[in-house]
Design brief:
Blueprint (H helix, E strand, L loop, with lengths): L2 H25 L9 H16 L8 E5 L6 E5 L12 E5 L4 E2 L11 H9 L5 E5 L30 E2 L1 H5 L10 H8 L4 E4 L4 E5 L2 H20 L15 H10 L5 H12 L2
Parallel strand pairs: 6-7
Antiparallel strand pairs: 1-2, 1-5, 2-3, 3-4, 5-8, 7-8
Length: about 270
């Protein structure tokens, strides 16, 4: 083949590649602006704390709404929570499209986060986990109810999301689309997914993380109490008794354990 033909093909190939790159760049959302390093530190700490406390393991993810643009959120690239650093944090729009991915991969179930932030303007942080202590309550007829004041935020009930029913057909049980993300958890502050996971929304990254731990421990405690069945069934907080403690506690008491959990988690 003549050298001129090879050169022409190489030139055309380079031009096509450049055009594709330009289109991809043009379609990529523009960054919302700089993020306070303290916020990034808290997001990293939330990942590490939840891993250290057994709420997440190699799977699970934590996000926070972008402080400069409520139509964006921040979450790490697809990596085990215990390994997250500030450099891993990526920005997403509410369609869960990554801003400036730079070759980094994203969590498959990121759509849970984007659709919750879209549906709930008051939500500032989301935790998705697979804690074994609470999974049984998504596959049985036993509801997860609060036993003590630290889990009082569960007093309003925990809906169970059945992805097969939502999709209308068998799936791989992963929320891979915005449509499933909307169905998975945009209707409440917490949801249990049948045979898969838990999703927790909160008023801030520290509060969401701080409530993820009592929720995991509460599942184990409730199981130890006989799951509320039999002659010695557990007495749960209910009605005002279930909701009032959670509202009164709010985020006021979380700075104390947060600093302890953070110190332990980041020391590893």
């Amino acid at each position: 083949m003549p050298a001129t033909t090879l050169a022409r093909r190489a030139f055309l190939g380079g031009a096509v590649a450049a055009l594709a790159a330009a289109r991809a760049f043009a379609q990529s959302p523009a960054p919302a602006g700089p993020v306070d390093p303290k916020l990034l530190d808290d997001l990293v700490a939330a990942n590490r704390i939840l891993a250290d406390q057994g709420v997440v393991d190699g799977y699970g993810h934590v996000s926070v709404r972008h402080p400069a643009d409520p139509q964006r959120y921040l979450m790490s690239r697809s990596i085990a929570p215990e390994l997250v650093t500030a450099a891993d944090v990526m920005e997403y729009d509410l369609d869960s499209t990554a801003v400036e991915p730079r070759g980094r991969t994203s969590y498959l179930e990121r759509f849970i986060h984007g659709e919750i932030y879209r549906a709930r303007p008051d939500v500032r942080a989301v935790v998705h986990n697979h804690s074994p202590s609470v999974i049984p309550f998504g596959v049985s007829q036993v509801p997860l109810k609060p036993l003590y004041h630290m889990s009082a935020f569960l007093g309003g009930g925990v809906p169970v999301f059945d992805i097969k029913a939502a999709a209308g057909q068998p799936t791989d049980m992963l929320v891979r689309t915005p449509a499933l993300g909307r169905r998975a958890g945009a209707d409440a502050r917490r949801a249990s997914r049948r045979a898969h996971a838990r999703t927790r929304r909160g008023g801030g990254r520290r509060l969401a993380a701080a409530r993820g731990l009592p929720q995991r421990l509460h599942g184990a405690e409730r199981a130890a109490a006989g799951a509320g069945h039999g002659p010695g069934r557990a007495r749960h907080l209910s009605g005002r008794g279930g909701g009032a403690p959670g509202r009164r506690l709010g985020g006021r008491h979380h700075p104390r354990p947060w600093e302890l959990w953070k110190k332990k988690a980041l020391a590893k």
